[in-house]
Amino acid sequence: MSLRNLMKFHSLCLRSSNKLSHSQLSEFQFCFYSSFPRSTKRLKKTQDTHLKNQAETSTSSTFGLLFNEITEILGGDNFTTGKTQSGNLISGEVKEVKEEFPDCTQGVCRNAKESVLQEKDNVLSLEDTQMGILGGNDVSIEVHKITEIVRAENGVVSMEERLENLGVGFDSEVVEKVLKRCFKVPGLALRFFKWVNLRDGFRHTTSIYNTMLFIAGEAGEFQLVEKFVEEMEKNFCEKDIKTWTILISLYGNAKLISKALLVFNNMKKCGCEPDVQVYKKMMRALCAAGKDDIVIEFYKEMVKKEMVIDMNLYKLIMNCLARLGDMGAIHSVAEDMMRVCQTPEHIVYGYVLKSLCISGRIREALEWIRDLKNKDVTLDAEYFETLVKGLCRADRIVDALEIIDIMKKKHLIDGKVYGIIISGYLRRNDVSKALEMFQSMKESKHLPMTSTYTELMQHLFRLGEYEKGCMLYDEMLEKGVEPDTVAITAMVAGHVSQNRISEAWKVFKSMEDMGIRPTWKSYSVFIKELCKISKTDEIFNVLNEMQASKIDVQDEIFDWVISYMEKKGDLGSIEKIKQMQRIYKLYPQEGESPRTDASKEQEHNMELNSNQSEAVRMDCHLVEPLPRNYDEQDLQEICRILSSLTDWCLIQEALEKCNIQFTPDLVVEILHNCNTHGSAALHFFSWVGKQAGFSHTTETYNMAIKIAGRGKDFKHMRNLFYEMRRRGYSIKSDTWTIMIMQYGRTGLTEIALNIFGEMKANGCNPTGSTYKYLIINLCRRKGRKVDEAIKIFDKMICAGHIPDKELVEAYVGCLCKVGRLLDAKKCTDSLRRVGFSIPLSQSMYIRALCRAGKLEEAQALVDEVGAEGSTLDQYTYGSLVHGLLQQGRMEDAMTKVDSMRQAGINPTVHVYTSLMAHFLKEKQIERALEVFQKMQQEGCQPTIVTYTELIRGYMNMGKVSNAWNIFHRMKLKGPLPDFKTYSILITSLCKANSSEEALQLISEMASNGITPSTVNFREVFYGLNREGKQDLARSVLQQKLALRSKRKFFT
């Protein structure tokens, strides 16, 4: 079937509200797929998983015969081997082909180069290299002036007013160039785009729309993209090839495959013929989404149109065909590469072999080698190496060793090949055999590669074999093997794990002597290891070193450090880190643009945090991240399958095509990454446990139990626990703790207490984490049991466990709320005996009193502390101000703020946000905005809570458009909206009779990985019914059921 059938199919999609389900797309792939010669029978077999498994079982004995035949071929005296002139067969760079065959490949190389340049031009070159030259007019001065105004976001005079008074012309050329210079500030670009459209005589051109499409798409605002497309049609603005290319590129990169295919369909309908770049973008997007069969249809269409296909695209096509197992098509594509592009046959054959090995098609790879023998093709050493890699990847190390023996006889073996075998053993966690192979390699006089030394060192350090790891590093240096950043970083981590900080710094500094510049990753590993052993001063030293070396200190690093310090209760250091972060954003390193995007991990306010984010933090402590000893590509592939498909039969079929060697570490990471897709993840857990050669561990069961609990699938959670017990797995404290936490966080504290008793009855001693999460859940409003919390807290202290700051705040806060002040005082007094400083314990008590509305008691304690206050005063004052404002005592609150300033303490973001919230509640919007502006002028960056309060205030005052502007600003520039933000906006929209917009937010939450609550669904459901939209209200129930089925395990 030709690509025209693809167009017919997507015409149906257009008549179905432009929505394409996974099941529809899957059915369509099966219907329209038309393979190359000799491939139909093979593809038909792969459609039925049961038949495939039967075929593999019945032919398993034939694999041994085939492998023996291949080893005889490879080991035969009459089978010649050689090296390619390129020196690197598999890399396949066009440059190498050109050097070997300059005459016949010159045109191909030139076309490939032109294609790259054209692609860059098509997607948009957002920064013009020569701003002054366009049609002979020098507009660079005007562009610079306008851009300066547009990007000056916080000016006292509005952007629109300043532009009106500028006195320059706004023609389409100038506007387009300004927008291209503002692509990093999409909100301001949109504002300018709208303003200029209102000017008399101005009309947006296709080029301007193209620029805005790109800016909106890069910011992830696809609703805005669709709006621009509609505007173009409404304003009779014709789409050009660049418009279509941008749309396909944006949707493809976002993995919105059905949208990309619909755009491709509309493009052809409009009479715009797709060029090479459009086909390439479609094919890359389809390949990334696992739609290999559709990729092949596009390739066939390109061949018919005699389009130039570059080597990278051919490699992509080969990988798709290898995953499909379509050898007939592989033969045809290989012939096209040699015939059309005149690629040398040894390079083409190398591509084929590598693709088959990467996709786990070992049988097909062996058959391919047999075909090469029949063609009398010279077998290069790289072919052997590729086959060894493929066998190790498929966990056939014994077979790989047979190939190694042949390579030894033919003198083709080197340290790189030995390294492949060693990596295979390490992937299995079989360190002893890896070391045996390592020793054998050295005895054979082969020099190990840097990567081999590094992998062995990493595994030895993980096993606590510190001395052996150090000996390997010294040996590497003695033998003249140059270490790279990864090897040096591994050694640094090893030293830090043993608290040998001076040795770690010595090794780290040795990079400079070797001419190696430390990477961001090197610094981040250093900092993470220091966090594990609580070396605060050294963390500051590493951060200062990063800044001195002009390394981009990303927000991710600051968040790690802040999280570590919060657990430690080191509030003074937290403020220093945050100050360092603010300074870095204001004054980025030379050559870097100021960063306006907020970190992905949002800073949560003490007064307004969501239960959902709290639960995520709790989960993080229980299942520790495991050392990475798996292939990252395998992880990404499985996660893509589990997250992109909904039908388990289709998921299972895709999994069985992967031929990936699963290890416990890989399975834990897959489950961790796919925890929001609970049903698929739990089915995967069940499926992988039945695979030959794989056995679950306590860690994989713990992760599955956690996923079931987070989806409130408690029946399945218990079933997994009983299954662990039946199969003899070690049930440790972490397993019990996870179940206690999952019951507790949903308010089922009685069951959590029963589990706690069962844990002790089974002889398992509770850990500090067990006590912590049980007490925190007993202190929550839902399921609160204060007396039990007090008893268990006392038991925790008696057992020698030290509570952390998070637990103390939750516990003392609960006691103050229910009026148990003597118990709260007793707790804070006892903290001094377990290492808490006096100011810290007093500060936590004062803040708890403020939150509970007991301001007189809090103030009395502040007066009692007097001069003993420290840097913690700013947090104490902040809590007092917040408490006063909550009671409507505005004058007292402002007096407290003035006393803060007199004491040399600047108001924190907490204080500013509390003041804003008060003014917004009183509908004094001007005063709230004054506080917001002053806060920024003093270098105090707004948090997610600040913006959420603005949204709440605007909605309460009926200023819906202003609230939406803040919300869109958060999505474009950060901090990203969290559960609380979405919930407040949904509630407000439903009250304002805009429940349909609230319904869209429910879908957006789910797509952004935030699980909507029952309350969210209920508010939208009732709101739609009130507005007379019963059909939409029923769809809310359907969405809720769909979310439930997505999170729970159904057999």
From TrEMBL:
It holds the Pfam family PPR. InterPro entries: PPR_rpt (IPR002885), TPR-like_helical_dom_sf (IPR011990). The keyword Repeat applies. Keywords: Repeat. SUPFAM superfamilies: TPR-like (SSF48452). PPR repeats lie at residues 240-274, 275-309, 380-410, 414-448, 449-483, 484-518, 697-731, 732-766, 767-803, 873-907, 908-942, 943-977, 978-1012. Belongs to the PPR family. P subfamily. PANTHER family: OS03G0856100 PROTEIN, PENTACOTRIPEPTIDE-REPEAT REGION OF PRORP DOMAIN-CONTAINING PROTEIN. This is Pentatricopeptide repeat-containing protein.
